[in-house]
From TrEMBL:
It comes from the Bacteria. The keyword S-adenosyl-L-methionine does not apply. The keyword Hydrolase does not apply. Transmembrane segments: none annotated. GO terms for molecular function: DNA binding. This is DNA-binding beta-propeller fold protein YncE. It comes from Actinomadura luteofluorescens. Coiled coil: none annotated. Keywords: DNA-binding.
Length: 349
């Protein structure tokens, strides 16, 4: 099985962000060898690959630190050539700041980046023309901290999760307006089904502060037509990343905590990748992963799952049929923790 899921991947790459190390590392998708690194601005978070233009986009979110505990917000997106592993351009989104979630509409040549709000304006989504690599618009989400952002397969609707605000923002990408607020407790990662009919949202918000007992964790399933939650996929632990494969599997990264006094993000036991059917909601399996799973992606054929774990600074490569771990990639090349954003990059054809 291992050989079959690896077959035909020669020349494909996996790109991985080291958040604290401020690098994007590239691995051969066929044998997992590291083939190069690109230095980027401090606190890179998410990645998005534009196959048409052969550009990898990287969002740099803070000057140091993380959400609610940082020394200032950055305003840049970095465009990288993954084949030469060189920076093509650094795009400044000022006065917008803290770009995080990235989503691409390849047909229309538009890149969307969620940005945090300020005293002058709420959080929103910046629209970037991928031909000119310049911002051409903004859509308000009416929440201070929109974080993850995804778009429907037809490119007409966008969804932004909001950590503190008790709703998911739904925006009309053609009109550039907010159209709905879907009630959920503060939310983390999200993903859209391949047919665009359902949106899967991790909630509640993963706060590490002590206080009131949070709502039960789960994957809220939003009906795209009615913009309402119709069911909840049950999990045991708080989930940050959610991803849907091309074959209709929902991948959720569960955090499992362990006692560790004095750590601002708590202590972590090995996390868990839990897999559901995007159609039936049935649980299909699970696999143990590294500490604090934060980002998930998959190969275009849906055979392999990749789970970036920020505290262990590792990426687990999972066979999504057998649910066996094929490898664990060490991202902390410079001794700095922080594996975060992921992108699978098919070879140029």
């Amino acid at each position: 099985m291992t050989q079959s899921v690896r077959a035909g991947r020669e020349g494909d790459l996996l790109a991985v962000v080291s958040q604290s190390g401020a690098t994007v590392s590239f691995f051969d998708a066929a044998d997992d060898t590291r083939v190069g690194d690109v230095d980027v601005l401090a606190e890179p978070h998410e990645l998005c690959f534009d196959a048409r233009r052969r550009l990898l986009w990287c969002a740099s979110t803070y000057r140091s630190g993380y959400y609610h505990a940082n020394s200032g917000r950055r305003s840049e997106l970095t465009a990288i050539d993954p084949d030469t592993r060189r920076i093509v351009e650094v795009v400044d989104l000022s006065p917008e700041h803290a770009p995080h979630g990235l989503a691409l509409d390849a047909e229309r040549g538009l890149l969307y980046a969620s940005v945090e709000g300020s005293d002058e304006r709420p959080g929103g989504v910046v629209v970037v023309d991928t031909a000119t690599r310049r911002p051409i618009g903004r859509i308000d989400t009416e929440a201070p901290g929109p974080h993850w952002f995804v778009i429907s397969p037809d490119g007409t609707t966008g969804y932004a999760t909001n950590k503190e605000a008790p709703f998911v923002s739904v925006v009309d990408l053609e009109k550039g307006t907010l159209t709905a607020k879907v009630e959920v407790p503060g939310s983390e990662g999200l993903a859209v089904s391949p047919d665009g009919t359902r949106v899967f949202v991790a909630a509640p918000y993963g706060s590490f502060a002590s206080g009131a007992e949070p709502p039960s964790p789960g994957i809220r399933v939003i009906d795209a037509k009615t913009a309402a939650v119709t069911e909840v996929l049950s999990v045991e632990n708080i989930v940050f990343p959610v991803h849907v494969t091309s074959t209709g599997k929902v991948l959720a990264g569960e955090l499992r905590m362990a006692a560790e006094p004095g750590s601002p993000l708590g202590g972590h036991a090995p996390g868990r990748l839990t897999v559901f059917s995007a159609v039936s909601g049935d649980r299909l399996g699970h696999s143990e992963v590294g500490l604090f799973p934060l980002t998930i992606t998959s190969s275009p054929d849906g055979a392999l799952g990749y789970v970036a774990c920020v505290t262990s600074s590792t990426v687990d490569v999972i066979d999504l049929e057998s649910m066996k771990r094929l490898n664990r990639l060490d991202i902390a090349k410079r001794g700095e923790p922080g594996a975060h954003g992921l992108a699978y990059i098919p070879r140029a054809r």
